[in-house]
Amino acid sequence: MISPSPPYCEDLKCGFCDSNLQLYTVPQREQHYEIHFVHQAGNTNSSTSSELPVKYVVNSHQRKDKKWARKAKSILQPAETDIFWHLADGGDPPPCYTLGLIPLLRQALWKAHSRGELRRAALCYERAVHVSREPWDSMWGCGYRNFLMSCIALMDQPFQKAYSALLSSPVHPSIRNLQCCIEDAWAAGFDEIGAKQLKKLVGTKKWIGTGDLWVAFVFRGIPVELVDFDLRQKNNGPKAVLDWIVNYFTPSVALGTDVNDALSKASPIVTTERMPLVLQYNGHSRTIIGYQINKKGQTCLLTFDPSRVVSAEVRKTAMQCFNFTDSSGSWTTGQKRGASEILSTRIQKCMKPEETNGTESSTTKEVDFKDLLKRFIVDDKAFRSKDQYQILYFPMTNPLTESERLGRKIVTSTKMG
């Protein structure tokens, strides 16, 4: 079984105590340093870090000034903002939500293709939304954020409209609501093994993996599948995993059609109707939104990594590409005309280079597309040190009947070599 894992986090260390400040906002970092300064001012007999509040001492054997430690903890504890937003909600999306990245990445892929840097690429459902971690869940929330990204796409897609009601009832998805949903599933007899392992989930900071997401989706009646890859006896690294993902995102070819002929005539950059999938391995989990094959034939994955915060510049450009607003400037649901239809039209006009003779729109002309791609691409080198993977994907079949749902109380997966 692949263990859920903490998110990737780069270090930004405090100059006094070596605490990792990467996950704090600028005001929180300022508060952190203020605690050091004030504390030192009140302790003139010592200038060593061993006299600093316990929470910020690295490898210290001293336990001093607990009152200051409690105060520092209360000041620096990130506020919990467990908000779920999706495209039909209206209002502005929370800062950790970024719309419009798929059409923006499509433009970047076209640019790379025009430079001769890649052969072909495929992207998922174009209205997928990136949801990044926040300070309060940054060390444990990747699995939950992947769940939210999946829910947003599933609740918006037009192919199985019943999914939206299933996912929003009795309550909307959110991190804490997901914990409640999983515990409710345990109480109903689902995933007895997982229940014994995790025991309690609600209100905790416990990591969850794709197996737990499978339980939550099945419990709500959403068809979902797991695929396990055990590569410990293989010599070709993660190739089997990458090939599976390429096949998943590659548009199907009609029966009787020559595959090579079809691919040669197909557009090198395509946006598909496929839902994003979740890739779990020992060390991290990410939402996979597509792939690219570069000029050397190397496959790279395109990812929405919940541990990566989208920069303000990229978010602004992506949101402009997804600019569906009313006169008040708020996000709306397209009451008179389907939101999908209107947004699709606007995105196509804004982003498709084949419709603009390769020129950039005013929305994207300032974007460094080469740098943009680097932020969302993961090549096969990142996976070579791992030998076990699990994929969660959505076959987009009809919602589970009650008998089908109750027949899936035990977590099952397809085993691949």
Order of helices and strands: HHEHEEHHHHHEHHEEEEHHHEEHE
Major sheet characteristics: 9 strands, mixed
Count of beta strands: 11
Strand content: 5-15%
Mean pLDDT: 80
Distance separating the two termini: 15 Å
Q: How much helix, percentage-wise, in residues?
A: 25-40%
Count, helices: 14
Weakly predicted, low-confidence segments? 6-11, 38-64, 324-359
Structural class call reads alpha+beta
Describe the overall structure:
The chain is of the alpha+beta class. Helix content is 35%, strand content 13%. It has 14 helices and eleven strands. The strands form two sheets. Strands 2, 4, 5, 6, 7, 8, 9, 10 and 11 form a nine-stranded mixed beta sheet that branches. It has a two-stranded antiparallel sheet with strand order 1-3. Strand 6 and strand 7 form a beta hairpin. Helix 4 packs antiparallel against helix 5. The protein is globular and about 55 Å long.
